[in-house]
Design a protein that fits this description.
This protein is mainly beta. The chain has 1 helix and 25 strands.
Length: about 300
């Protein structure tokens, strides 16, 4: 925790100096008062975000009473909290109210397993989640949209292709070390208003860890995830904490020198198969889902496969 607080003090720059106090908060369940781990804390205008650790703690340095920015705090299956920074002054505990999870009622008597969004993993050459030479990667989640031939299915497993090696762009893009990471998988129904990700279809947290493989397979059988309609989404939620943090060295043309930029693992592959429509969505710091157009019009899908029973 000391290293996490030190990291936050260095990276969250909100008119703070080393002599100003550090404001520490704990995000807890409103009813149980237990800390909510890996809650997402995003400071909107500053374009900064972090995840809490096991006890639900995070820290912001400086005089909160003088700050004019918005904080959005989210956790899976909890109501989102949107609050002004100055309103946190004097607080030390932030309660979140758990949502009433609405289970999907679905009966599938017969069917078979089939694979959606298939591609040759050897063709994956591009990755999302890394800063570029011209822009930072400023999204909290990326989601792949899946369309089914008919309504109603059971999600059996998810397979994700990711960048397994650290890339040093200041050294002609050389792979220098293995990338070990952990992240969360979110499964969403479609939002009828936006056409993007809507409510959670998983009642439990699904956390994935990587070894030294480019492919990560998550068996979702035990979570009994039912898909009510013809469309659903599989999203990667980055855990933006000290232990999951990495750096990308990029060449700054203005400075004519290599500079370090913070990234959070993993970098998610882009499918080499071009589809008929864009199926990638991104969750920004305002917690708005938008079509992810960075690779358009060349590529349309993330390198994420799913097996469903239908």
């Amino acid at each position: 925790m000391k290293r996490l607080l030190a990291f936050l003090c260095c990276t969250i720059i909100i008119s703070a100096s080393a002599q100003q106090k550090t404001n520490t908060f704990h995000i807890v369940d409103q009813d149980t008062k237990i800390g909510i781990p890996a809650s997402s804390v995003a400071i909107v205008r500053a374009r900064l975000a972090i995840n809490t650790e096991k006890e639900g703690a995070f820290s912001i340095p400086g005089n909160l009473a003088a700050m004019r920015d918005t904080v959005i705090i989210c956790a899976q299956n909890y109501n989102m909290l949107k609050i002004q920074l100055h309103q946190l002054d004097g607080m030390d505990t932030i309660p979140l109210k758990r949502m009433g999870f609405e289970p999907v009622t679905l009966k599938i008597d017969t069917g078979k397993d089939f694979l959606i969004n298939d591609f040759d993993r050897r063709g994956v050459a591009y990755y999302s989640g890394l800063n570029t030479e011209t822009a930072a990667f400023e999204y909290l989640q990326l989601a792949q949209q899946f369309d089914l031939p008919k309504s109603g299915a059971i999600l059996k497993s998810v397979q994700i292709n990711r960048l397994a090696f650290y890339v040093d762009y200041s050294s002609q893009g050389n792979y220098t070390s293995m990338e070990y990471t952990k992240f969360r998988i979110r499964i969403y129904d479609i939002d009828p208003g936006t056409g993007g990700p809507g409510r959670d279809l998983a009642s439990e947290i699904i956390e994935a860890k990587s070894g030294d493989s480019k492919q990560i397979k998550i068996n979702t059988d035990a979570f009994q995830i039912l898909i009510p309609g013809k469309t659903f989404f599989v999203a990667i939620e980055w855990l933006r904490d000290f232990h999951n943090m990495g750096y990308v060295n990029v060449f700054d043309h203005k400075l004519q020198a290599a500079v370090q930029q913070i990234n959070y693992r993993p970098a998610i592959g882009i499918s080499p198969v071009k589809g008929k429509k864009l199926n990638m969505w991104a969750l920004n710091f305002r917690h708005q889902w938008k079509p992810y157009t960075y690779f358009s019009p060349d590529w349309t899908d993330l390198a994420i496969k799913a097996i469903v029973f239908q």
